[in-house]
Amino acid sequence: MEMEYFCRKNAMQVISTREFRANQKKYFDFAENEIVLVARKNRKPIALYVPNDDDIPSREELQAIQRGLDDVRNGRTIKIKNSQDIWADIL
After folding, report:
1. For the chain, what is the radius of gyration of the CA atoms?
2. Residue 39 belongs to some domain of the structure
3. For residue 32, is it within any domain?
4. Residue range 13-71, pLDDT digits in tens
5. What is the rounded distance in angstroms from the CA atom of residue 66 to the CA atom of residue 73?
6. How far apart are CA 91 and CA 87, in angstroms?
7. Could you tell me the pTM of the whole model?
8. 67-91 confidence digits (pLDDT tens)
9. Of 6, 40, 58, 84, which residue is least crowded by CB atoms under 10 Å?
């Protein structure tokens, strides 16, 4: 079950999970230049594509996210009492 569609100037491959399992390297290579949708029975398809550089967080962004998660886990948070004046609680 291999179909080809056109989406945003790029070809799009729609394949079955069986086809994907049998030819993973082929479809990973296709995903370098086009979107590959892996159709699944009674479930949403999975899209394979190479993200733009802007879609991937930088090392600094990942570290900032990790610090924020650590702050929440360790109770280093501020409770906002008045949503109309959040800066009063933050500063």
Report:
1. 22
2. yes
3. yes
4. 899 999 999 999 999 999 999 999 999 999 999 999 998 888 899 999 999 999 999 99
5. 10
6. 6
7. 0.56
8. 999 999 999 998 888 888 888 888 8
9. 84
> Chain-centre distance of CA 67, in angstroms?
21
Strand pairing report for 35-40 and 10-16: parallel
CATH classification of the domain holding 19:
3.40.1620
Specify whether the CB–CB gap between 51 and 73 falls below 8 A.
no
Residue 64 covered by a domain: no
Residue 7 lies in domain? 3-48
- What distances in angstroms separate CA 4 from CA 36, 40, 82, one per listed residue? 9, 16, 54
